[in-house]
Specification:
The complex is a heterodimer of chains A (460) and B (386). Chain A folds into 4 domains: 89 residues, Uridine Diphospho-n-acetylenolpyruvylglucosamine Reductase, domain 2 (2-Layer Sandwich); 130 residues, 2-Layer Sandwich (Uridine Diphospho-n-acetylenolpyruvylglucosamine Reductase, domain 3), CATH 3.30.465; 96 residues, ACT domain (Alpha-Beta Plaits); 97 residues, 3-Layer(aba) Sandwich (Vanillyl-alcohol Oxidase, Chain A, domain 3), CATH 3.40.462.10. Helices cover 32% and strands 23% of the residues of chain A. Chain A contains 13 helices and 19 strands. In chain A, the strands form 4 sheets. Chain A has an 8-stranded antiparallel sheet with strand order 15-12-14-13-17-18-16-19. Chain A has a 5-stranded antiparallel sheet with strand order 5-6-10-8-9. A 4-stranded mixed sheet of chain A has the order 1-2-4-3, sandwiched between helices. In chain A, a hairpin with a 5-residue loop joins β8 and β9. The longest helix of chain A is centred in the last third of the chain and has 21 residues. By secondary structure, chain B is α/β, with parallel strands linked by helices. In chain B, α12 links the parallel β3 and β4. Classes of the chains: A alpha+beta (460), B alpha/beta (386). At the A-B interface, α2, α4 and β16 of A face α2, α3 and α5 of B.
Chain lengths: 460, 386
């Protein structure tokens, strides 16, 4: 490895390569519950050319490469399961272009959600991008690569991977490719009408290459926003509530929350409905239409819209929400991991029921909820388990709960999102053999030496 | 280790890397090194790993621990209310543990030894503490209203000495009655404390407190925000009853005593961490600048609680753990100041002044912007500059 380290230093500069025990320790683990594995080196590239040179070297030497963005995936996808090089992309942090008229931004692979948000607020205040419920240091490319979703996923077209307008990626053999309109003409405005090769890098957990630049859709930013909170005593009506409200096309974001905390919320699921508008009149109209769509429920059942004082609204509005990180301290223990399940909206009551059973069985704290994706086309249901990093028994029970939640998700008819390596195996066991064969053929073609994030999507 | 019970509660979510407005990385060490291990969360996780025996003490570990500039951006931005207030305290506690081992990074050891041996981090004779007064009529403290505490950088660094002269002249112009300790002044210990040498800090504090007591000092004007912080927070916590002001506080109060004049300039102000985030004062300096006719104040994107540290805090000014390359905080800060179109980058701390002056040269921006302390700006506006 010594010779390889020297070559890595020649590529990116000595100060951006480390094989020190301290960096190995930090990059061997994430905040979740997966087993740590040491990398052999951590490398911080500063350009596409440097990424290419590192990959060519790794491919020549058959050294695994694990790309990493914000390092916040929680499910171990950036843990180097078979050692090798962790490629921390965050030095590639330039915002290359914002096309205000065509509403897209082109950013390097290490640009964070927060930095793009701040940039747009300063220079393009009429535009915004969809932010995930992750801390602001999560990267655009990392989130897109795992099919993330966010606060515009309900209203503006689904998963963040569906908002990609173009990609530049480095293949496992070192070639840089451009996909989408940017492959043919100067603009990064669309993936259509060309063969959609961007999908080769979306949802693959870094096993097919490294995203070095990305075009992402931007959206109009209305001047006003408000939050409606619908509370009900039954999760059973949530799918129909979501169906009715998404049918109005008046809401920007919709998140269901089923939480044991705070105490007053226990047993009372709530639906958080964000509404945006450019005028008081527009806001009143949208809110009125949403209310009308669920009149049937609040007139006939013990449920309805909660009055929300302004201080409380601020806890729900805005993105990213800082309060979500506080969940890590519920157990006074600095940890949480969750199973995010992509599943049909109608599965929500069953997912809640399974989640409660699993939490009770393993004696763990579980918070559940769901973000609506598209016009109710599906949801990202989450079972979040807070754990105490100083309590090994609590961590072990939380890990068992996660594994069981993955299996329950599949049994319910959903698919675990950004699943841990064992969860990926659960998915692959349910997957059509023909699909697995195609995935393997694609990977063999792109990555003949199997260097890219080995241990992920490995069909056995 | 003190605060050990909090270590596992850091989630390493990374809010601490950015300012509250997300403009860019705002942790000086992480900005410079870019490895997760140098982020506040990474540092906390490594301290825990070290205490658990999962990583060993090494040069790299010490570099990670001592490169923190104690700027408190992490405290401002952390998402976890139960631990955020102690984030820098934890780093200082870890440094204290390393001090106990005696295995310090060379620059840190040398700094502490010089302070121990000579009472100042430059290792110079105490008689040199009066060099900055050459050509000025600055009396020793007897029974004046205030003691003007110059601090190490103001007394020994050429740039700091110029700032000390500016402050003394501006205070005299404003009619403030003050004297200095001269050769009897020693290091205030703020950065000694930040580097974890709490015993040496205690020794310095006791000596200075005795010096203040012997002279009957009741009120102090601190040239440096670092001194101001030490007297206000550490000495007071140790029972020292000192009424301390930063010089900007007095200038803000007494500016009307100075026939202010006019300075046609676009000015951007760099908040010193030990005045701003450490002591929640963002207004005094802006009040001074706002009181001068002709000055147009242009804020940098990172200002007030979001301000970017110059990289000199936490002892880094003397130990240079963060270096001076293009990724250093001071270079970033100068580029940010240039983006405002300002003619003057205003400072209120001798460490910031020196760090940013050097960064302006490194950025080859001497023709675009000049670094001025706010006392110097007051003098310039009043026509009393040099």
């Amino acid at each position: 490895m010594e010779g390889i380290l020297k070559e890595l230093e020649d590529i990116v500069g000595r100060r951006y390569v480390s094989a020190s025990p301290e960096e190995k320790y930090i990059y061997s683990r994430d905040q979740g519950l997966q087993e740590p594995h040491d990398p052999d080196a951590v490398v911080l590239p500063g350009s596409t050319e440097e990424v290419q040179a590192v990959i060519r070297l790794a491919n020549r030497e058959r050294v695994p490469v694990v790309p990493m963005g914000g390092g916040l995936v929680l499910s171990g996808l950036t843990i180097p399961q078979k050692g090798g090089i962790v490629l921390d992309m965050k030095r590639m942090n330039r915002i290359i272009e914002v096309n205000e008229t065509s509403r897209y931004a082109v950013v390097e692979g290490g640009v964070s959600q927060g930095v793009l948000k701040a940039y747009l607020e300063r220079r393009h205040p009429g535009l915004k991008h969809s932010l995930p419920d992750a801390p602001p240091v999560a990267t655009i490319a990392g989130n897109v690569a795992i099919h993330g979703s966010g606060h515009l996923s309900q209203s503006e077209g689904g998963f963040h991977s569906e908002m990609v307008t173009g990609l530049e990626a480095v293949l496992p053999t070192g070639e840089a490719v451009r996909l989408g309109s940017c492959s043919t003409v100067p603009g990064w405005f669309s993936r259509a009408p060309l063969p959609d090769l961007a999908g080769l890098f979306l949802g693959w957990n870094g096993t097919t290459g490294i995203i070095t630049k990305i075009g992402i859709k931007l959206f109009p930013k209305p001047k006003m926003e408000d939050i409606l909170v619908y509370m009900t005593g039954s999760v059973d009506i949530l799918p129909d509530l979501i169906y009715r409200i998404t049918g109005t096309e008046m809401a920007e974001d919709m998140v269901a929350a089923i939480s044991p905390k705070p105490d007053w919320l226990r047993g009372f699921p709530i639906l958080l409905i964000t509404v945006t508008a450019n005028s008081e009149e527009e806001m009143a109209m949208k809110v009125g239409i949403i209310r009308e769509s669920v009149r049937h429920y609040y007139q006939t059942m013990e449920s309805g819209f909660m009055p929300v004082p302004p201080y409380m609204k601020s806890q729900f509005l805005g993105a990213p929400l800082k309060d979500l990180s506080k969940f890590a301290d519920v157990m006074k223990g600095g940890g949480f991991e969750y199973v995010g399940s992509i599943m049909p909206v109608e599965k929500l009551p069953g997912a809640c029921s399974a989640g409660l059973d699993i939490a009770e069985k393993h004696r763990v704290t579980c918070s559940m909820g769901a973000r609506v994706i598209g016009r109710g086309h599906c949801m990202m249901f989450f079972n979040a388990y807070a754990f105490n990093r100083a309590d090994e028994d609590n961590m072990a029970r939380s890990a068992l709960a996660l594994e069981e939640t993955n299996r329950a998700t599949l049994e319910l008819g959903g698919i675990p999102w950004k699943a841990e390596a064992p969860g990926q195996q659960d998915i692959l066991r349910k997957m059509e053999p023909g699909t697995i064969q195609l995935m393997n053929r694609i990977r063999s073609l792109l990555d003949p030496n199997g260097i890219m994030n080995p241990g992920n999507w490995e069909a056995r | 280790m003190e605060y050990q019970e909090l270590l596992h509660r850091c989630f390493r979510c990374g809010w601490c890397k950015l300012p509250l407005n997300f403009v860019d990385i705002n942790c000086p060490a992480y900005m410079t090194y870019r490895f997760e291990s140098f982020s506040p969360g990474g540092r906390l996780w490594l301290i825990r790993a070290w205490l658990q025996g999962d990583v060993e003490m090494s040069d790299r570990f010490r570099e990670i621990i001592f490169s923190c500039a104690t700027c408190k951006n992490c405290v401002e931005a952390c998402a976890l209310p139960k631990i955020k207030d102690n984030l820098v305290d934890i780093v200082i506690a870890a440094r204290n543990e390393i001090v106990q081992t005696g295995k310090l990074p060379g620059p840190v050891r040398d700094y502490l030894m010089r302070v121990y041996d000579t009472g100042n981090p430059y290792g110079k004779p105490q008689a040199d503490r009066l060099r900055w007064t050459d050509g000025l009529d600055v009396p020793l403290y007897r029974d004046q209203e205030f003691l003007l505490f110059i601090g190490d950088v103001g007394a020994f660094d050429e740039s700091g000495m110029e700032m000390a002269r500016n402050v003394a002249k501006a205070l005299q112009l404003a009619g403030v009655s003050f004297g200095i300790m001269g050769e009897e002044e020693i290091s205030d210990g703020n950065d000694v404390y930040a580097l974890g040498e709490k015993d040496l800090f205690k020794h310095l504090a006791e000596r200075l407190m005795k010096g203040f007591g012997d002279r009957g000092v009741k009120k102090i004007i601190a040239l440096s925000p670092h001194s101001y912080n030490a007297f206000k927070n550490y000495y007071a916590a140790a029972g020292g009853k000192i009424d301390v002001l930063h010089f900007s506080h007095l200038l803000a109060l007494k500016l009307s005593n100075i026939n202010g004049g006019t300075l046609q300039a676009r000015v951007t102000f760099h908040d010193p961490c030990y005045l701003g985030r450490w002591n929640n004062d963002y207004n005094a300096c802006r009040s001074v600048l706002g009181g001068i006719r002709g000055i147009e104040l242009a804020e940098m994107e990172r200002n007030r609680a979001n301000s970017l540290c110059c990289g000199g805090g936490g002892g880094n000014f003397f130990t240079a753990m963060l270096g001076s390359g293009p990724d250093s905080p001071s270079r970033h800060r100068v580029r940010e100041a240039l983006d405002t179109g300002a003619d003057i980058l205003a400072v209120a701390c001798p460490i910031c002044r020196k760090m940013l002056e050097d960064a302006v040269k490194d950025e080859s921006a001497e023709d675009s912007i000049r670094v001025r302390d706010i006392a110097g700006i007051v003098l310039e506006a009043a026509g009393a500059w040099h």
